[in-house]
From TrEMBL:
Keywords: 2Fe-2S, Iron, Iron-sulfur, Metal-binding, Oxidoreductase. One of its GO terms (molecular function) is metal ion binding. This is (2Fe-2S)-binding protein. Residues 6-82 form the 2Fe-2S ferredoxin-type domain. It comes from Siminovitchia terrae. Signal peptide: none annotated.
Length: 153
């Protein structure tokens, strides 16, 4: 049985790229294996952990459960597409990571939050952070990183 392939044009980190994909290929798989963008990590592969989070159209999406063909026509931003953003610096300054595996997903999620709501409430921050899981650091440092950006410190 021949597997159907599609040529899709994706806008990734400000660049248009043409890539051939199978209908069922996830955005995570395409980013990592076909485009060499390995910042988004495979974790649970079912949308629970957030290690694979990228921005699609300015909002965080779990790339492990989004088909690559669904991302066509949207701006996709991976951790590789962020350059010295305030939240990246804050994660370093506040020691908001340990092993680093989940960090790109958290940074993308926090960056998207701050782009969409520059002064979020504590409840909004907690809600957004609940979509990502870290097993080796405290969410306190991640929260402090977000707060330091909001407060301009």
């Amino acid at each position: 049985m021949e597997r159907r392939r599609y040529s899709v044009e994706l806008e990734v980190n400000g660049e248009l790229v043409d890539v051939d994909v199978r209908a069922g290929e996830t955005l995570l798989h395409v980013l990592r294996t076909k485009l060499g963008l390995t910042g988004a990590k495979p974790g649970c592969l079912n949308g629970d952990c957030g290690a694979c989070t990228v921005m699609v159209g300015g909002l965080p999406f779990k790339s492990c459960i989004m088909l690559a063909v669904e991302a066509q026509g949207y701006q996709i931003t991976t951790i590789e597409g962020l350059r010295d953003t305030p939240i990246q610096r804050a994660f370093i300054e506040q020691f908001a990571f340990q092993c680093g595996y989940c960090t790109p997903g958290f940074i993308i999620n926090c960056h998207s939050l701050l782009q969409n709501d520059p002064n979020p409430s504590k409840e909004t921050i907690k809600s957004w952070l609940s979509s990502n899981i870290c097993r080796c650091t405290s969410y306190q440092e991640i929260n402090e990183a977000i707060m330091s950006v909001i407060n301009g410190k």
